[in-house]
Specification:
- The chain is of the alpha/beta class.
- The protein folds into two domains: 6-44 and 286-393, Alpha-Beta Complex (Aspartate Aminotransferase, domain 1), CATH 3.90.1150.10; 47-280, 3-Layer(aba) Sandwich (Aspartate Aminotransferase, domain 2).
- Helix content is 36%, strand content 15%.
- It is built from 13 helices and twelve strands.
- It has helices at 6-9, 20-28, 47-54, 70-82, 97-109, 125-132, 153-157, 182-194, 253-265, 271-280, 285-307, 332-342, 377-393; strands spanning 32-35, 92-96, 115-120, 136-141, 164-170, 198-202, 228-233, 245-250, 322-326, 348-351, 353-354, 368-372.
- It has a seven-stranded mixed beta sheet, sandwiched between helices.
- β5, α8 and β6 form a beta-alpha-beta unit.
- α3 crosses α10 (271-280) and α11 packs parallel to α13.
- The longest helix has 23 residues, at 285-307.
């Protein structure tokens, strides 16, 4: 009998989406499910996106250029200029969301068997992208008790081998909400220069930085400009996840030229989506400022409720719209499934993403899950009450959280 390749068999299912059938089953039984498992904002997409597509009036929806339409790349350049990130049109390649940009980064940096260092927990699809091209994710373990900040430069340097090609960091962090300090970023830059490595900076949550913290991009660090790859997307910034428009940005001309080969191989990005995305970059700053305030309010609602739950451990997230929570349970995935199958409050329950799939180190994250505070405050209050009562009723509750 024919079978799937070892490559695809080795890939993990998405911890964010894998349990959706349990949620569908709960809904079929009449339950309402509060989805805190996936980073799908309920914020309205700016109207300029829809207006631009409605005005599209060419007789033929033709192929776009492989590198992306110039008006979109110029709009991206103007956006980066506002952030004091020095990128020109030719430094940017438009991609199918940030996901394709990440895949291209692995392909242009690494040969089969090479390694990339990633702080864990990390966005689970990093595993999927790397496994597709036979690249190994090597974890830099961080802990909830430390706010998921990086270990010392010396500790990270011990993880570097002759096969290590890059650091890959999400800043602000998905799934942790962590904002790296300037010292942490400089440590990574110093190590990248010393060991001739790339830094892949996943910066799709750039706007979502809270509590007066000043955001710094790896694109601001001129001394490593030739080895920084910026991954970006309109998905979360403009609440346009379904548009699937992102970019791969790098000031290393050789890297851009080689990634362009990959872009040519997949032909182009959707012509119409690029029209809409270009319009998104004209969105007034007031939109993003209001969205930022809304997420701060939601963060505060979620975090206040979590801190009042006995046995729950988390630090206040400073960016993005996620938090990783350590739970007083035997197994976070079993707990999520139990909540969907067996627990509700007045016909309502909630769903989170088990965190084990966000780690590369076997056994870590088993009693943790990620919450995405992408719902309005009234819904978050209800969801947190359901979680509190669910933790109290769960048969697999433990009185003391095991150390990792």
């Amino acid at each position: 009998m024919v079978k799937s390749s070892n490559r695809v068999l080795a890939m993990q299912s998405s911890p964010i989406r894998r349990l959706i059938p349990y949620a569908d089953e709960a809904k079929a039984k009449g339950k309402k499910v509060y989805h805190l498992n996936i980073g799908q904002p309920d914020i309205k997409t700016p109207p300029a996106y829809f207006e631009a597509i409605r005005k599209f009036s060419l007789d033929v929806v033709a192929y776009a250029t492989s590198q992306g339409n110039n008006d979109l790349r110029d709009a991206m350049c103007a956006y980066y200029k506002e952030w004091n990130i020095n990128l020109k049109r030719d430094d940017i390649l438009v991609t199918n969301g940030g996901s394709e940009a990440l895949m291209f980064a692995f392909m242009v940096m690494c040969d089969p068997g090479d390694e990339v260092l990633v702080p864990e927990p990390f966005y689970a699809n990093y595993n999927a992208f790397s496994q597709c091209v036979n690249v190994t994710i090597k974890p830099i373990t961080t802990k909830a008790e430390d706010g998921f900040h990086l270990p010392s430069k010396e500790a990270m340097e011990k993880l570097i081998t002759p096969k290590t090609r890059a650091f890959l960091v999400s800043n602000p962090g998905n799934p942790t909400g962590t904002i790296y300090t300037e010292k942490e970023m400089q440590d990574l830059a110093d190590l990248a220069k010393k060991h001739d490595m790339f830094i892949v900076a996943d910066e799709v949550y750039r706007e979502f930085v809270y509590d007066g913290l000043k955001y710094k991009s790896f694109g601001h660090m001129e001394d490593i400009a030739d080895r920084v790859i910026i991954i970006d997307s309109v998905s979360k910034r403009y609440s346009a996840c379904g548009a699937r428009v992102g970019c791969f940005a790098c000031r290393n001309k050789d890297i851009i030229a080689n990634v362009l080969k990959l872009c040519q191989g997949r032909l182009c990005i959707s012509t119409l989506e690029q029209v809409g995305a270009a319009a998104l970059y004209s969105t007034p700053k007031s939109y993003l400022e209001e969205v930022n305030k809304e997420y701060v309010s939601r963060r505060d609602t979620l975090y206040k409720a979590l801190k009042q739950m006995p046995g729950v451990v988390c630090e206040e997230p400073k960016g993005a719209f996620y938090v990783v929570v350590k739970l007083p349970v035997d197994d976070a995935e079993k707990f999520v499934i139990w909540m969907l199958q067996h627990f509700d409050v007045n016909g309502e329950t909630m769903m989170a993403a088990p965190a084990e799939g966000f780690y590369a180190t076997k056994g870590l994250g088993k009693n943790e899950f990620r919450l995405a505070y992408v719902l309005k405050n009234e819904d978050l209050v209800k969801a947190m009450n359901i979680l509190k009562l669910g933790l109290e009723a769960y048969p697999g509750r433990v009185e003391a959280i095991a150390t990792r």
